[in-house]
Amino acid sequence: MQKHPCPSCGSALKIDRTFDGRAHVTCTGCKVEDLIENAGDPDEIILEMAYRLDKGSGGAPLDGLVREKAEIDEMIGGIRVDGLTRDILYTKQDYIAHYSRICRPPPEEGPEVENMNLDPRISAHLKKIGIDRFYRYQADALNSISGGRSTVISAPTASGKTEAFLVPVIQGIEGGRGVQALIVYPTKSLARDQASKIASFCRSTDITSAVFDGDTIDAERRGMLDSPPDILVTNFDVLHHHMWRNTQLASVLGGIRYLVVDEAHYYSGIFGSNVHHIIKRLRRLAGDMTCVAASATLDGAAEFCSSLFGEEMHLVEGEGGGGETEFVMVFPSMRKQRALMVDLLRRLSRGRHKTMVFNSSHKNAELLAIQASKQGMRIRVHRAGLSPGYRRSVERSFRDGSLGAISCTPTLELGIDVGDVDGVVSSVVPYNRLIQRMGRAARRGQRGYAFLALGNDPISQYYKNHPSDYFEDTEKSYIDPENPLVEEYQVLAMACDKPLDKQEAAGHQGVVEAHQRAGRLELRDGRYTPHRAKAAQMLKEYSIRGIGESLGIYHGKKRVGERALPIALEELHRDAVYLMAGSRYRVVESGYPEGMYARLERLPRDYPYFTKALKMENPLIEEVYESRRVFGTEVAFCRLQIRKIVHGYVNVELGRDEAVGEPVALDYPMEYEFVTKGLAFRAPRPGKEIETAEDPAAAEAGCYHAAEHVLIEGSNMITGGAAQDLGGISLGDTGMIFIYDGAIGGNGASRSLYGRLEAAIGRGAAILSECPCGDDRGCPRCTFSYRCGNNNDYLHKEAALGVLGEMLSGTESGLGEPGL
Known about the structure:
The chain is α/β, with parallel strands linked by helices. It has 28 helices and 33 strands. About 1% of the residues have low confidence.
């Protein structure tokens, strides 16, 4: 920020650059402010402002960059807002897209505990913990589960979902008959966090429970296997591992009567596709089970869980919550999203409000913590990939008040107890996900603060202009049980659990025959049995949370983590800056592809850069599953082979988030091929937008690339936040556009977009037409993508709008022969 004398009063003049290159000028004395187009150096800005003031044209409204005071007053209405919220609402740095005060009364009351025909010991325990009456949805869930119906419980955060499933499960268990119920959590930390509540409930009725996971010590394992508990708290990784290995744990799963899956929304994508098969395998061992799913955020909960569990699920919904929260949706007109998020955190920290900052990725969580620490804030990172001990220390420090803020990823959307939370700052997520994050604040009746920090990206600009649409865009969880690689591994694991009969094998005939040819399955006495050594060789390295190989990450001789391919190529190439636990490291040695490792060295705390990979991707259509007309364009849903090549990188300056210097080429490009699913179409050619362009060749080359970007970025919330799971490729001026699942084999994200492409095209056109930038290439708020592998080169905004306009008008375009 630069300071110069105001030409009107001589006070300090502040000059900030807006995102689209203009100068926002503010006088600290007379408070006059203006927006100068095409501003050059500071002297030119001051001369231009002086001229405009002399002519009486200075101090013009800030042209949509900030709200006028009258607009904010109207937005607030008669609500009395406190000082912290008022300072943010009347900011001169950002655009306030929406304000509301969210009051969440408790859910509707239901019957008294004593009137539900419960075991007296359960009733006594409920009263002991302060529950004399159930909420209506809890009573409905209890009746549904007790009646043997597989049930989905969808209710807000902190509204008593645990009691809703735990009471009927404990009521239905007959003690001393071995493991009768599995309660499954997506992470070990959440399972451990909830285990004490479950154990306390169980002790009151002489039912036993225990946690069995990767952190359970051998002595405890032996004890619970020799004398199995009635309820086992675990995760699907453990179940998968022990079932296919036929361990002693697998032998006690035959009596399961209840399977409870908490935080069911977590099982979207590849993880959920694996879990679908694991539940199918568990049912083969245990027979009929009453299945229960619980979640605070699922939209279309019954449909998703029916797909996840492989059976029809009865839906029980609860509403309400507790507490009162000030909610503000903020668009960073004149700074970067991370600068806005750090500033919101600073304001909350200054008021001693304990705050959770939710970021969209590992890298963003790390970068935000680095910037906030530089400004003196007490903050630590909480994300997957950090050691369990480190994460637990973060949770403990926040809970006891010695830590004021956490920079996290969705790991802390889950119900881990971190104590009182006053404020939540979130990057853009679907509204139902935001509601779960907001539910972290004001649980104990205090005033809560929640800020949605829109970003410097297309969907954020769309919500700035259409804030009401945000509240209609909810997350759609998705899985792809027919992912061919998931099926390949899970069918082999299923045969290891218990040999397949011919009827079971018929449903997976191609996969079974492939395993048979490879010698991993053998047909004996009418059943397919595994060759143990060969099957183990394939299954032992398989992770149900991802597919494919991983690069091990080493600091010195210590293994500190791993990253799955293909994303590992982008983050762990030679000289990449890797972010971990608030520190930066440089990759000094990459063993890919021979050694499958990356070796790190620590960088100084003041190192000013991180890196962004440059890459090329080549697609090949292997099979078309189905096709349809979207307006006039033929769109195919396909099996694709993708060849990814990381050939270089750029340095990005921390804070400004802008590339500096020239791109750096890698000595040895890193290549990886994988098969996935996606959609392909040949977009129609725009006419006048190319013909009237200053550089028609650049417009023709850039129109499809920009259209591909905006279709992915603009569809983000239409598909339930799936854009982060998608990749895209446009092939020069051919018009061929591919949008595919980033996960090997497919995760369902592109299938979700395939079914909603009409809405994505319309929203993409709105983003391009409403963006005020005057650059032919566009800007980060319309055509740029932070995932772009060629540094957002070869883009043309107006011509891309022409492409989408032709699609919306129904111009015919067939897929033809892509010539790939």
